[in-house]
Amino acid sequence: MVKKYHKVFVTGDTHLGDVVFNYQDKLVDAIKRDNFDAVVFGGDTFDPWRGNSIREILAKYDQLFKFLQKIKGRVVFIRGNHDQDIDILKRLGFSVRKRFKYIGSLGERVKIIHGHEFDDDCRRWEFITRKVSFVENKINQCLTKIDNQTFIRFIRLLGDIDLKRILENFRARANHYRHTDALIFGHTHLPMTDEAGKVKFYNWGGWQKDFDLDPRVVIHKEGKFSNLDIK
Known about the structure:
Elements: E1 7-11, H1 24-32, E2 38-41, H2 54-60, H3 62-70, E3 75-78, H4 88-91, E4 95-97, E5 100-103, E6 109-112, H5 120-124, H6 126-131, H7 133-146, H8 149-157, H9 163-172, E7 182-185, E8 192-196, E9 199-203, E10 216-221, E11 224-229
Parallel strand pairs: 1-2, 2-3, 3-4, 6-7, 7-9
Antiparallel strand pairs: 1-10, 5-6, 8-9, 10-11
């Protein structure tokens, strides 16, 4: 049965372990701002460019995960295309899902997915992507030693996603979500609020500042959706 939630915090694409992520304090503070019924991480929580094991990443961001452990009954992790090892969070008592559906306080039907479902390259090259994770890890170790964020972002642009194609795919498949009032997804790292047919959609953006934007989150409260900067 789909549950009802009155206040929901949604973010994603944190890519923990990536050398660019340094917002642990801000993320914890953002979650603490209200007593949310659900806190949803919408995918790509981790990153195969990390160069470290998941356990090492959990230790590095211990402040975040110690806090999340205290509220783990309200925390949901969505599996993204970079989350091959996310099942370790199940062993820590967290909920890990492919998607998350709920009913808002005014009866609105909401679905949260990561968004790579609309990315042709992710679907076409999923097997190969998994096989090259080892190489990506080695690259990240080198980039960490270089410690130059501008250079790192330039390198990552070589494998940038086709944003226009992803949005075209979403709009073409909007009818698949006709029983949903609001669809929340990420993957593109670009925050958006728009509508396709009768479906409103919201994108939380990302924490990598790929577009020189501050990290953002989506807050769903009292029937309203807000796409907010985290400064």
